[in-house]
Fold these 2 entries.
Entry 1:
Amino acid sequence: MKHIIQQVFHSGKFIVGFVILAAVLLIVIVYPLLIKDAPLAIIGQGTFFPPGTYVNAYDSLGSPKYILNLEHAAAKRIASKLSDDDRLAMQEWLVAAGIPENEIDISNTEQLLRQWENHYDPQTNIAGMTNAKRNYYIRLNASLKGLLSTEGAIIAVKNADTGALEETGDVVAQSDYVNIGQVANVRRLPLGTDNFGRDVLTELVAATRVSLQIGFVAGIVATLIGLTLGLLSGYIGGLVDDGIMFITNLFTVIPSFVLLILISFSIGQEKRGAVTVAVVIGFTSWVWTARAVRAQVISLRNRDHVNLSKLSGHSLVYIIFADILPYVASYVVMALILQISSGILAEAGLSILGLGPKTTEVPTLGLMMNWAMIYQAPVLGKWWAYLPVLVTIALITFSMNLMNTGLDQVFNPALRD
Amino acid sequence: MAEERKVCLRGSKLTKVFGLGRQKTVAVDHVDFSFYEGEIVSIVGESGSGKTTLAKMLLGLLNPTEGEVYFQGKKRDIGTHKKKKEYWKNIQAIFQDPFSSYNIFHKIDSVLLDCINMRGGRKFSHTKKVEMMTEACGFVNLKFEELTNKYPFELSGGQMQRLMIARIFLLKPKILLADEPTSMIDACSRATILDMLMQLRKEIGMTIIFITHDIGLAYYVSDSVYIMEHGKFVESGTADEVILHPQEAYTQRLINDVPKIYEEWDLSTV
């Protein structure tokens, strides 16, 4: 046993796959210990907040101020306020006002603003411009005026009785900074929020955990059924073999995914928990394990060591467990790994179709994909709602397939290069 | 000894057919035989003549398609696991390939311990068991201290086959079925193995059914010889009768196929 494990860990592919899977498992286990938020808590009012650090604006007003005189601070501020659409609109107006197009550089904020200041006149009528467009330019001009101001912002509080604004005396100058560590409420959302306003990262970790559980349960159920039937039909043979192979062939000709959809559908939304879905997946995917194990057992049962074991008076159960099972164990472990990874994929496939586990209790990788699809995240370009999920699914299945290939090379030395 | 020879294993019309219809292969075809107690019987034939199939039927590992095996005068009954176990206390085997005879996941000790357990020694103390195993290994010129806690792949082919004999030594069956026990071993170890088998027979007085393709070897060891061709016994009798005065062309051919030193080897086949 020790020898086999040593050998397995000499295979580069197995190590890479194992490290990836171990890292995923570690994150899944450690993350909830550090961050105890409920994975399905709705924290954002609105959909698809982009990834980033969210600093409480109200708290940052009260935080200690530090004056930093940084170069280009004003330019950066203006540049960030002036969207690409606005720049194009400004160019359009300026061109219409008679400025040669090659003199306008919309990426040069300073020059663009100077030209705008010099030439813009709200009274000028440009042929073909709608009223709405004219009002847009007036609004744009007003906001640009505020941009160029170097005055600080005054903080005022509403008087509860009169409703009048009363200055607090605090002025936030343009060179005032707060230290993010001194702001009371800062929330990092490395992957933003999803369509329901839930933290995608926390949700993703919880979903990965549930999906792995589903994969493991499905893989173990499938392997157990396949192994038991394969061992029995291969070793006993005769009528038992015929009977089991009849059932196995029935399951083989019906595409398992169709069967999976039908069973999931007929169970109904109410009863479809994560474990139920896992068992259903396992129940529909044992066929190939059973066939492969049977084939191996048939070639093993006439070996001399099995005959010798019989002659030593061992029982059928003992022979199956001691003389047959260890010889097929390496294959079964490899099949188990593939079953787990295909279980995760099957769950994702079911959930995308809306036949996954009940949606209110647990997230799964498939459900996250489903939600992202329903709320059109791909169309809206909200990549953080689905891309991390895809990468996670890909990483898990990739690592497992890599482990499988590595094991294959260890157990079948002929495949080693 | 020859006067009151008791039949210990008798077969009547023993047949084994594999496959159905067109693909039918008759491996063993209505063979009759009587093996006497204390004898060394050789079954000689070329590859594919049905020797091993016959051996497996005698051992009860394969069910005959037709015919019966009589053990010690009574019809053999191995319907249940218990009866089979009882039968296997009386008949044991050494297989052709020592490398595949062992479960590679178990240590060597377990093979010998199984034998002790089978002979009702399950409750023996550990020291007693070790003593018995040491004795058995000593019989075949192996040192138990060197073998214990080792896996089969750490042994040479000759050592493995000798350990198989040690196993028989512990089991002390009435009949030993040796299915080409020396064919996978080099010539030097072969003599040792045969010698040990002969010694063992002397020690516990068992019947040996020796299956081989080597008629020279059969002549050297056996009392009576059965020649097998295409699943049938074509000739049988004492070793001298069959080999020195062969009646069948097939026997003749088998004898001619044995290479001899100082003589031209006739490689022409019939």
Entry 2:
Amino acid sequence: MDFLTVIQVLDSTVRSATPLLLACLAGLYSERSGIFDIGLEGKMLAAAFFAAAIAAFTGSAWLGLGAGIGASVFLALIHGVASINFRGNQLISGVAINFLASGVTILVAQHWFKQGGRTPSLEGAARFEPITLPFANELRDVPFIGPIYYELISGHPILVYIALLAVPATWWVLFRTRFGLRLRAVGEAPEAVDTAGVSVIRLRYSAVLICGLLCGIAGAYLATGLQANFTKEMTANRGFIALAALIFAKWRPWYALYACLLFGFLFAIETRFQNIQMFGFILPVQFVQALPYILTVVILAGFVGKAIPPRAGGEPYVKER
Amino acid sequence: MDKMPAWADAVLVPLISILLAAILSALVILAIGESPVAAFKLMVDGALMRSSGWGYTLYYATNFIFTGLAVSVAFHARLFNIGGEGQAMLGGLGVALVCLFIPWPHWSIALLAASVAAAVMGAAWALIPAYLQAQRGSHIVITTIMFNFIAYSLLNYLLVNQLKPRGSMEPASATFPAGTHLPTFQEMFSTAESAWFRGAPANVAFFLALLACIFVWLLIWRTRLGYEIRALGFSETAATYAGIRPVRITIIAMLISGALAGLMAVNTTQGEAERLLLNSTEGAGFIGIAVALMGRNHPIGVFLAAVLFGFLYQGGAELALWTSIPRELITVIQALVILFTGALDNMVRMPLERIFLALRRKEG
């Protein structure tokens, strides 16, 4: 494998890792506050559709992004009402949201565009085009650094950089602000937070809304950045891989970045090479596809470093009377 | 004292939830510019007014009975088995191996062997998540989701690299030999002068599903094991105190659940397709969640809910055929049913409880 191939694989890694990373951080806020969310997939899918649809109507990727976030936040609110106000089962609510998004996107897509559940192809300002970072063109021909800067670091849509910046931002919010401290506390011991006079409901709602926001960006990136339209089930289980990455990262922001890059790398490998020869064995492509899930099960099993979820995760909080 | 009489809990709450889901579904149909009344009429005509429609409805219902029972058995132990999909895929693999490589003299023996193989493979696929939940405390929902994806990759690998007949491009096994063919309803009920269930895929596996309902009812309410499963689901501390071993019961409950999900493959793989397909489960594993929630985890409820979803599936296919409403309408209805009977259960329950308390106060 030559240097340019390596750069191209890494470039593709960054592109596939971005939606995973945004969804993973979304799950991180929600689960750190004690709300399990297996509805990441559905929120991303809804956001991808509404982003593509509104971008197609208005010709503006930014309006599309707004619509995508709106759709995702709406689903997040359903999840919030079910799991915070009505103390419903958060897993069941997540399953319902995934189905709701999977059905509604096709119904509305067919009603609006009549193209068998797709949206028209987006062009120009309706898409998030790659942006060229300063000096990228000048440095292009410098050996070694040039290709890395021009191919790998520069030339992504702006949402990729937003996703990468969301990692330190999340770390800062969670570990350096009062809100973050309370958010982590409400996922571990909501009764303590409540005793201290802080509203459990408000904290959990803010976490669920941030989760909706980030899933919205992730979905919009899929349909208006990575690809140029919405297609049926286009999230292709990325929401579940993000969930796997979240467990892999043990609910920590920087590790979430590494886990998403690893899973993105597996994506990139899988699309570029089919079966991989390694030490005389042929590694089937299906094995590479299943690897994120296998790794997550191994981590969950606790044989290699135990992943311990927030203690109050999945439990509705009932105030003592 | 209970806040509500038992009949209200068992019948009224689910009925109101389904009514809410139905109203919202009607609004969705209105929103995409179609008439809910006409759509419903078309669904009833296509699914219930002809015997072939019933043949499809009951075929789908058979799948949903198996997966619905699978989810409910796990629910009784307070385990959420979301892995019915993967367990059914592995069940299909078991059916395929038994049907492809052993020459069966008669379908009844083949059915028996395929059922055992499907149940064993389904249970085996549930074993690792069950063990990890019971012994290592890893969340069963996450592990079963992961196992769904791993099952898909495994099946994809086996179909493409091992089981696919030479020269075929489709990821599917060879067609099973004729000796494994299960009698369809058409063959069973048609007489010389009138053809019933013409062309419909419903087959003898439906009766296997009915047997499974009876088995689950006996297991949960009439055996010691069922008592232990319910006790564990009710309170783990109390169950442990009573000498019930949570690890053992968790694993057994999941094995039964996985076996039931695996049995679904007898209907789809041996009964309908007569070869192993990559997407033979068609999401039935997930519909099992809706069916179990709606059926309140009781075999009778599961049976009724499964027939209702079978109707929705067949009716949805008719809609897609005759109108511009896509099949995905069913996914939306299914989502609303799960949302209202599952996650938003308390939204219906809390006001009802208040009403019943007020009524009682008036009397007393």
